[in-house]
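ok so for the tutorial part 2 we go from a plain amino acid sequence to predicted structure tokens. step 1 is just haveing the sequence, like this:
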Amino acid sequence: MNVQRISISEAALELLEKLKGQHGELIFHQSGGCCDGSAPMCLPKSDFYIDDNDYHLGAIGNCDFFISAEQYEYWQYSHLHVDVCEGRGSSFSLEIPHGLRFITKSRLFTPTEQLHLKAAKKGLPAEFPSA
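step 2 — the prediction. this is what the tokens look like for a chain of 131 residues:
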């Protein structure tokens, strides 16, 4: 059983593809900081510094998805699903000027999923270029 930590809705994927056409390669970062709190931020891949305080949860729409270590402690047993809704968030995420915002929905992994869950890796995946 291959258990994914992250997924994306069709609507969010459509928006992501539009943003990639406008901005090139992108990443997501789920932080617990200011602005929109724990909203996922979509950013140009070259504009965000990832280090050992971030966990790589996988990729959605061919975009790497990272989460801060503090947030990972809370959500490590949850499947995260990225969706989109109308409204302007308070972050630097690329979808904001379109009057939309990415949101994260979560659910706990089932006991069976937990048995097959692989640990998330801290820091950058090997193919991710260093800043």
